[in-house]
């Protein structure tokens, strides 16, 4: 059935309304596994079913790889055991859809980009708007009004982190077993109310208590969105969508300065409230709106879908894409705790290696410390509105860093290159700031590079999702553990290396972040080696048979494979017999 303005309007506005229970509540969609000719696709539903069958036939075309003639530089090819030559020809670098030939798959991806990726950007924007508002409020009168002294700022920042860490712990057991499309918006509404409380706080102890509970309500957000990206997107689509999420972080930092400047200039003193207090009220209003939108935008996951905007066949197609990517689906009926699952986690390399990797990631940037805006204020040449305006520069250029990094990772199929690219510049910037006694222009350059550290975060989390994709339980647990590990280290390292009393000259802080950036780069090579070792075991799932001609003959489809071969080949196609 061809798409007309009428059918499109029906699909986007009429049908979603009909899927709401009681006219307002999204509920779990019950969809069988078979593509239906009576679905919204009409004849294209049948065409999609035929296409699925054609894909299965194409996947049986096996490519043979001889390890005896493998070149050393193939180590850096992340897709060596993931993408055979046929797949590579279908995946041009310039395609947003990474070789998706079906019009229906493209439409599904676009819907997911809006419902999940774009909405996650909005959600992270308001969360980080609140986080950065604390720094902007500190230089806009909060310090003096609340009588903050010494390291009160960094201690207040850490109260948020402590609440966040503690309340991540329950999600070790339920992250992949609860409808996140209900949970995340509900928590957003809860912390929005607490943000209003920040506008009326009277003491330093009060702001610290509020930051603790705001951190608690925001606890699952970061890891939940990363988990959902892994539920819907394939490995070479994920980083760009995860980058959308981080756009929210950067836009939150960027817009906070502009909003604080405008609010301070226009509303300072209105109704007896200082400008920095009005900023928290405005933030809360925006957060409530975004939270309400989330109830209807977030789709759940392909096997527990609550989306009112996806058709039945699009849900089936999302499940089919999961299978193509060898991603394990969620099952809400599984037990919250299982010794069998935890044994798989504890005795596997992933949880240990990825947690250390993420610690370096969380500690490799000075952007979250407020060092740049504190330096601007220390120059004593700018009024408060101007300081807030200038604070928008570094996250603004950070958006460019983030975009370039995501494109390198997904379109050049090299997450390693994306990470090394960012960390080289990150190290340069932090070394300049550690030296400190340089021209002021050099300091500006060092601060402008500060967001290079975080630009690789969507690459790391996207790669983690890919590494753990075969087991949804371990993927959820490892995601929470590595996030907690990074959070814990960021708490104590910010106190030790970035005490407010040393602002803006953080010799230990800039040196530490540079060292973490270097360690992160080196550790990434170790992660790549382990990742490729795992992927080689499952190469046949991707139509690749690995053998070594020095110790074995070329395997054939009809031939047998000795159990003593150097490489174990797990045949995925029924046409291949051992």
Describe the structure.
The strands form two sheets. The protein has a two-stranded parallel ribbon with strand order 1-4. Strand 2 and strand 3 form a beta hairpin. The protein has a single domain, classed as MFS general substrate transporter like domains (Growth Hormone, Chain: A). It has 578 residues and is mostly helical. Helix content is 63%, strand content 2%. The C terminus is likely disordered. The chain is globular, with a radius of gyration of 25 Å.
Break the fold down into its secondary structure elements and pairings:
Elements: H1 5-18, H2 43-59, E1 63-66, H3 85-89, H4 103-146, H5 152-166, H6 171-174, H7 180-199, H8 204-217, H9 221-232, H10 238-267, H11 275-297, E2 300-301, E3 304-305, H12 312-324, H13 339-346, H14 349-362, H15 371-378, H16 384-390, H17 393-411, H18 415-435, H19 440-448, H20 457-467, H21 472-497, H22 507-537, E4 544-547
Parallel strand pairs: 1-4
Antiparallel strand pairs: 2-3
Helix pairs in contact: 4-9, 4-10, 4-11, 5-8, 5-21, 7-8, 7-11, 9-10, 9-20, 10-11, 10-16, 10-17, 10-20, 13-21, 14-20, 14-21, 14-22, 17-18, 18-19, 18-22, 21-22
